[in-house]
Amino acid sequence: MSTYEAMPFHLETERLMLRPWAEADAAEFCALLSERGKGTPTVEHIRTSIAELLTATATTGIALLPIQRRDEGDFIGYCGLIIGRSTVEEPEIAYELFQRAHGCGYATEAAGAVLDAAIATGRKRLWSTVGAWNTPSLRVLEKLGFERDHVSTEDNGEVVWLTRSLP
Asked: Which of 49, 56, 140, 146 fits 162 for a cystine, CB–CB 3.0-4.6 Å?
């Protein structure tokens, strides 16, 4: 078990709510993943993925959370902490939004709330890994104080590794 506090799993900002996954999120999660252009997973596969995310959250005390706009109540993506290419001690911040939600500041707003949640756990550093081609995501992380650490080459291209020390 981790020596860190569990992150809060309900986060609110001026325009957004981040909360734990529900089975009812499966269809929207499928639609979001289909925007990647690599096919659409089945709702059943996504329900399994949601169950796995909830189990990982219970084990690690960190979470990837669905994002809803407060006024509209619609699912626009996800944001949270994951182990990813890192560790539970120094997790990665991750986010993905529907294309219709790009350019509105939602990623920066949600990631800022997750950053505050990570600080509340007592962690000292976060990572993020982003495709070198993904300029908008790199800008979000730079706004939040992340700095480039190094670049690696993977099967799908160059990946920029960024880090942020926490107070």
From this structure: 146
And the tokens for 141?
A: 């992380």
Between CA 68 and CA 76 the distance in angstroms is 6
Query: Which tokens belong to 63?
Result: 């979470």
Answer positive or negative: Cα dihedral of 87, 67, 5, 48: negative
Residue 2's pLDDT is what?
A: 61
Residue that has been written with the tokens 């939602």 in this structure? 106
Copy the structure tokens of residue 153. Answer: 């080459």
pLDDT at 63: 96
Q: What is the pLDDT of residue 3?
A: 85
pTM value?
0.94
pLDDT at residue 40, as a whole number: 87
Distance separating alpha carbons of residues 102 and 84, to the nearest angstrom: 23
130 residue type, one letter: V
**What does the DSSP assignment read for 96-134?**
EE-GGGTTSSHHHHHHHHHHHHHHHTT--EEEEEEETT-
Q: Which parts of the chain sit beneath pLDDT 50?
A: 1
